Amino acid sequence: MKVAALMTGVGSAGLAGSGAARASTVLFDFGNNDSFRGASVVNPDQNGNYWNSVRTGLFYQNLIDTTNTPTTIDFGFSTPVGTDSYNGPAGVTSIPPTPAEIAATDIDAAALGILGVKAACFDYVNSPGGAIHCRFEIQQLDPAKKYNLTFFGSHKYSTDPATVYSIYSDNTYSTLVASGSLNVVNPDPNQADKHNRDTTLTLSNISPQTSNILYVDFIGNDDDTGYLNCLALSEVVAAQGWIGTSGDWNTSSNWGDGIPNAIGATALFAKAGNANETVTSDTAITVGTLRFNSLNNYTIAGAGSLTMQSSGAALIDVLQGNQKVNLPTTFASNTNINVAGVATLRMSDPVTVNSGVSVTQAGAGTVSYESTVTVLSNGSIAFGNSNHVAGLTVNATATATLNAGNNKTLRADALSVLGRLDLKDNRLITPVGVGTITGSGYTGITGLIQSGRSTGNWSGNGIVTSQSSANGSTYTTLGVARASEVRPSTATATAIWNGQTITGTDTLVMYTYGGDATLDGKINVDDYIKIDSGISAGLTGWSNGDFNYDGKVNIDDYTTVIDANIGNQGTPLGTTSGFSGVTAIPEPGTALGLCLASAVSLVRRRRTR
Ligand SMILES: [Ca+2]
Ligand SMILES: [Ca+2]
Ligand SMILES: [Ca+2]
Ligand SMILES: [Ca+2]
Known about the structure:
By secondary structure, the chain is mostly beta strands. It contains nine helices and 44 strands. It has a nine-stranded parallel sheet with strand order 15-18-21-24-27-30-33-36-40. Helix 6 crosses helix 9 (about 595-609). One calcium ion binds next to helix 3.
C-alpha cells in the first residue's frame, strides 16, 4: 500500500456561508481526479445524485447536496492523511487509474445503497498507521438538526481488519460522542478478494458539536491503518405532525414534533394511510394552522374546544381527505379555510366568529357547517358552498355571506339576523316564518328583506343581496314566499326546491327577477296570476305581488316591476346545480301557464288602466 500524500487541510472557516443549511444529504467521495490514483465521480451518478469528490490538502466550502444545491457545509482534514486506490475494491490500479480499473471495482451496489458508486468506492483516504489517527471536520452544520453519518471503508490487505469511526465533542478529541467499527476486510476467510464490498456503518442522530462542527476520527481497530472510501452525511428529518393512530391530541408521543397547542402553532395531519382516525381533546386547544394533507380521514373530537388564533392570519388547509372538526370552534383571528377540490371539511360542532374577525373560504372543495354558526359584532363569515346549518346568528354589525355563483342554498334551521346576511345570487331555506304585515312593516323573513333592501340599495340590516343588478333597481331582487304559497302541493307534503326537500311551512328566499312571485327564476303567466289574485284579495307579501316591499300590492308593483321586467328578463335564474350532486327539478305547470297567457294579459291591462 502506498501513501501518496500527507497533508493538512483545515483552514479558517469562511463564515460568510451562502444559503441555509438545508442539505438533505451530502455525499463525500474521498479521492478525486487530482488525488493520487484517484478519480472523481462523474455527476450525477447512476442514481442521479451529485457528489463532492475531494482530495487532501484543501478546505472545501459550501458542499453541494445530492440535488446539486450548494449548502453552508464546509469540510477539511485536520491531520495528515493518505489517499490512494491501490488494493481497494478495484484491486491493482494505475497512476492515474484507467476506466477499466474503475469499472472493475467489486462492490454490491444495491447493498451499499446511495454509496454504491464505483468511482466513489474504489479510492480512499487512510490514516497513516503507527497509532496516528486521521481526523477531519465537517463545519457549518445546522445546530437545530441531527445528522446520520454512513461510512464505507474497504481494503484488501489491511493489517487491521476493521476501522473504528468516531465523533468527538470538540477539536481536542477528548470527549467521545459516538463510535462504531466496520470490517474493511471481509471477515469470511473463504472470500477470495478479502475486501468489504457490501457493508456500511451508520452513526445516527448526531447533533453538531462545538461551533456547529462534527469532529470525525478514524483509525484501525488495532491502532494501525484505518480506511474511509466514501461517506454520506444525511439530515435526520424528524417526523412532523400527527404520528399516532386514533388517540389524544394532548399526548406528546402522538406528535412527531410536539403537541401543537399555542397561538400560531401548526397542527399537521400528513400521515400516510387510508384509514379513519379520531383525535380527541377533552381540553381547550389553540392553533394558528390546522392542515390536513393525508388520505386518512380524521375526526377531531372530544369534550374540549378548538380556537383558531395566530399573530397574523390563521389557516385551515385541507389538501386531501374527508376531514371533520367535531369540537366547538372559535375563530379568534382572521382565518382562511382552504379546501382542495378533492377534499372536504365538516365543521360539525358550534362555530363562533369572534368580534372583528373575518372567516373566508377558498379552494374548490366543500366546507360543511353542520351545527350552529354565530358571528359576533363586526365579524364576518363567507360560505363558499351550499350549507345546511342548525342555526345562523348574525349579530349587529356582523355579516354572513353566501358567495356568488353555482346557485347555492343556505339552509338554516334557526336564523337570527341583526347584522346582514348577504345571499348574493343564491337562496335561503328556513322554517322561520315568512312574516305578516303590520302597517307598512313586515315581520319575519320578509321583514328582514324589507329592512335590508332599505330604499332599494340593499344597505340596511337584514337579508340582502349585493348583486349589482339589484342595486337601485328592481330588475333583480330577493323574492320570498312561504313554500305552500308557491308550491301548493307542499301544504301537507314535501316537495323539491333547488334540490332540497321542503315542506309547506318553510320560508323560501331566492335571488330572482323582480316579479317572479312563484320563485322559479322567471316571469310568466303564473306570476301574473299571483299578483292579480293578490291585488283583488287585498293581500300582501312578495308572493302575492308586493315586489317593491312597500307593504301593499298596487299599480307600482305592475308598472315598475313585473311589467318592466317581463320583456327584459334573461334566461331563468337559479337553474344550475345547487347542493352538490343534486340537480334542480323543473316544476310542473309551465305549459298550462303558457296556454293562459293571453287571457291573463287581458286581466293585467284592465287592472293597470
Ligand atoms: Ca472514494
Ligand atoms: Ca473517487
Ligand atoms: Ca315565476
Ligand atoms: Ca308594493
